[in-house]
Amino acid sequence: MREVWAEAARLTSGGSIQFALLVTSINQTLTRLAGVAAALSCWSMAYVLARAWFTPMAIENGRWVSLGVGIMVMEFILVHAAGMLPGLLKSEKSPVKRLIYVSLLYVVFGVSIALAFKSRLLFGVFLAIMIPRWFGLFTGLGEAREPQLKRAGISAALYLLVAFLSVFVPFPQGGLNSAVLAEVYPNRGSGLWEKRPQQALAAGVIYFGVLGVAELILALRQSRASTAKPRDAAGPVVVEQP
Predict the structure, then answer these.
(1) Domain contains 142
(2) 143 in a domain, yes or no?
(3) Does a structural domain hold residue 107?
(4) 151: Cβ–Cβ under 8 A, 6 or more apart, which residues?
(5) Please, what's the largest Cα pairwise distance for the chain?
(6) Chain segment 207-239, per-residue pLDDT in tens
(7) Residue 125: domain span
């Protein structure tokens, strides 16, 4: 009879280990797929901005020249929010109230940028990114927020780098000659990115291209970090003789 109980205990323990391995494998696969999806999204944006830079009339009749500049301006708000919002929840005094006030301020910035570039699409992009972030602040665990904070740090550093490059490095004009700009972006302001849209578009190509690589690397590292040796939570199996 002792042998029967020992065999039953062994099978039960083995089943829990197999289940833990299955859950770990599924989590790793989902993490990798999420990383691939994020990377493809970034690379798609880099491709669109590159086309707007070199062949502006080939994509929506040049509409993406001004949209590309607007996206890079909007990205500043999104990058800032990615690091600011999770930090507000760590505040000891009224974190939710502060989160609401700061979120409203971001919404005002988002609306202002969309109105300045006369584009509903820009505000749609803003909402599409910010709504999941707001939702994730209250549903994610501390461990789940760590990768978000890492991404925010990488995005901020990368954005500052490409902004610096756009100011001091004269990128080629591409397909944005004076005749094209007069047609597709006639009412430009006096800012550097508006006077010379190729600077913003080039910065966007570099930013989203490198960010896609970073998303993929972070997802792979997160997937590997989630690997743990499954163990029986109940501890060692004790077999008692009936």
Answers:
(1) yes
(2) yes
(3) yes
(4) 82, 214, 215, 218
(5) 92
(6) 999 999 998 888 888 777 765 444 444 444 444
(7) 32-225
